[in-house]
Amino acid sequence: MNELKLRNFIYPPEDRSKEIVRAILVSKNIIKLLKEIGYLRIHEISDADNYSIIKSVLLKLFQQTRPEVKTVVRELTELTDLGFNLKSNLIDKILVDIPQHFKDEFDIREILDESFRTIKGESNHIKFHK
To answer: What is the spatial distance between Cα 94 and Cα 27, in angstroms, rounded to a whole number?
Structure first.
């Protein structure tokens, strides 16, 4: 089944960030596989695509439920483990952009803010870029 999906995977995709988000939402193992076989070089992803991917994954997470901080931290940790970057400017944009999509803006901003502060405190595990 995964083989068929990979055969239909267009590289480079017309909209790379959408294809990556779809793969992440299906299984992060797809991203690992694509990196291993050389189809995906996350370090070559632009800052705009990096932002778009992280924002899309977080939006999907918040649309499904109001996650606890530990859930958001786990999701962000998995993304950084795959090679995506949490730069300060990206965090600032996410803290403004994501809450605007929801009625309970303040609660969402609070969860995100606490999640990013937790990640900063775990900087020995996660690379936090300025």
So the answer is: 23
**Alpha helices (H) along 16-104:** 16-26, 28-36, 47-64, 69-82, 88-97
Average pLDDT of each block of 10 consecutive residues along the chain (130 residues)?
39 65 85 86 85 91 89 94 90 92 84 92 50
From the number of C-beta atoms within 10 Å of its C-beta (0-12, 13-18, 19+), residue 50 rates as: buried
Distance CA 93, CA 32 (A): 27
Determine the length of the chain: 130
Residues 29-61 have pLDDT tens digits of 888 888 898 888 888 888 888 898 999 999 999
CB 117 within 8 A of CB 123: no
Residues 6+ apart with CB under 8 A from 7: none
Sign of the Cα torsion 44, 15, 84, 117 reads positive
What residue segments make up the domains of the chain, in order of their start? 2-129
pTM higher than 0.85 for the full model? no
